[in-house]
Design goal:
Blueprint (H helix, E strand, L loop, with lengths): L1 E5 L11 E4 L10 E6 L8 E6 L3 E4 L1 H12 L4 H13 L1
Antiparallel strand pairs: 1-2, 1-5, 3-4
């Protein structure tokens, strides 16, 4: 399983959200990736297709930290910024 964050601000409602990619069930081509949003109840199991340039691959630990904050109604913006900061270096 691989994990991605949408880092394209032009898709404002999806910016900063984390998605999962399972190569056994999701599709990938040269330009696009099909990912799943399994952290939002209303979108659980819904596939999204994004250009690869919109996505930043993150670690499983980052995904779990984000998921824990989401489940606990934590500071999502703060968690998102901490994850992004780690990858800016």
């Amino acid at each position: 399983m691989r994990y991605f964050m949408n880092v394209n601000k032009s898709v404002e409602e999806e910016y900063g959200k984390l998605f999962s990619f399972d190569p056994a069930t999701n599709e990938e081509n040269d330009d696009e990736l099909e990912v799943m949003n399994n952290l939002d109840e209303q979108d659980k199991g819904k596939p999204y297709i994004f250009p690869k340039s919109f996505l930043l691959e993150v670690s499983a630990e980052d995904y779990e930290q984000y998921a824990e904050a989401k489940r606990g109604n934590g500071d999502m913006r703060g968690v998102t910024e901490k994850i992004l900061e780690r990858y800016r270096k």
